[in-house]
Amino acid sequence: MKYADDAGGGLKPEGSRQQSKAKKVGAEMKGEREQEHNRNKEERPFKYLAGDRAIGVEMSQSASVASAAAEFIAEGERTSLIEPMHRAYFRRPGERPAFLVLRDGREERTVLREEPGALPAGPCLIRSGEWLFAPEVNELYAGWLFSETAEQEERILQRIYYRLRASAAALLESADGAWAAVMLPFMPELADQPARQAALQDAQLEALFASVAERQRLGGDCRVDLLAPYPASAAEFAAQREFIEGVAEQTLGHAYAAACRIGAMIPPDVERAAAGEIARIADFLVLDGAAGEAAPEDAAGGFAKAAEEILAAVQRVKPAAVLLAAGAPAAYALADLYRIGFGGIFCSAGQRTEALLRAACLTWMARQDQAKPAAGGWLSS
């Protein structure tokens, strides 16, 4: 029996080697025949009966809506590698912006952070006043409200600060902390005590910026935008903005303070002219439907009407201004907000799925009405 060297350096019977070669050639010929068969199947046209054609059209439309929904939801969750602090709120006049459905409130999600440098499509709205209602903080807050001496008040506020810092750190470590828009606390019981309201906001800002500094020191990336709560005039917002920038500069330096995006949370009953003047110096505006007392379903109609009036007043002053809406009435009024040109809404976890689907359908219908979809959006680098 003759032997020949095989590829591995050993010896193999020559007859066996010839048999292997024949099997290999046979397998290749079989593969070619299967590929030709599959190619013929792919090239064979579909045949419809007359009755099937109408069903096919209906199924195609349904698939298109489903596809649009999937695309819209994916777009809402899509991340970008643009440096977080370099993305600005901006709307190109005359173009239809993307309508975003964003999160209102931090959610308990198993997903943590995306890959380093990634950024969501828009911010998550955080109402930091709600942190004071946590059991471990609420008792301290009540003690601070009814403290009898200045020393006791200062001591309790310091303890509140550390609790707020823990909450801020937890936010920045979560998926929602990749990009958060944090509204400063505005407590109704302190409405007639502006000094104490400012002291509480100062503690919140210091806790938030200290957590940002710590995360940056550890090499993590995050973006925190700030919302001044319910300014009644441009002068009031300007004072709030100066206050926020001052704390940011003291904590994180001038460069961070200059780059920080600061917007205003405004109620539906804000003076229309005042809303326009606030928009002139704000990076963005959020119209808060949660500021009203009516049930969301009942408030939706009035909220949409107020939103249209405020948007018109703002765009007369600043056409490129970005307006978002928040609160349960905003989710109920989504179709009207989309129609008049709002940039998107913040909604709770319970309303998010329905809002995403409604926004996807509206987007799909708008695309069908336009021969060429408008490009652009309200976030620019």
Largest sheet, described in full? 8 strands, parallel
Helix and strand run: EEHHEEEHHEHEHHEHEHEHHEHE
How many DSSP E strands? 12
Strand order of the biggest β-sheet: 4-11-10-9-8-7-6-5
Distance between the termini: 75 Å
Radius of gyration: 29 Å
Number of discrete helical segments: 12
Mean pLDDT level:
79
Strand content: 5-15%
Structural class category: alpha/beta
Portion in helices: 40-55%
Unreliable spans are 1-14, 38-66, 77-85
Q: Which shape, going by the Cα principal axes?
A: globular
Overview features:
381 residues; alpha/beta; 8-stranded parallel β-sheet; globular; disordered N terminus
Report on the architecture of this protein.
It is a single chain. By secondary structure, this protein is α/β, with parallel strands linked by helices. The protein is 54% helix and 12% strand. The protein has twelve helices and twelve strands. It has helices at residues 14-43, 50-77, 135-145, 150-173, 194-217, 234-252, 254-259, 272-281, 296-317, 328-332, 334-340, 349-369, and strands spanning 3-5, 11-13, 88-89, 100-103, 124-127, 179-183, 223-229, 262-266, 285-288, 323-326, 344-347, 379-380. The strands form three sheets. It has an eight-stranded parallel beta sheet with strand order 4-11-10-9-8-7-6-5. A two-stranded antiparallel ribbon has the order 1-2. A two-stranded antiparallel sheet has the order 3-12. Helix 4 crosses helix 5. The protein is globular and about 65 Å long. The protein starts with a strand and ends with a strand. Mean pLDDT is 79; it is low at 1-14, 38-66 and 77-85.
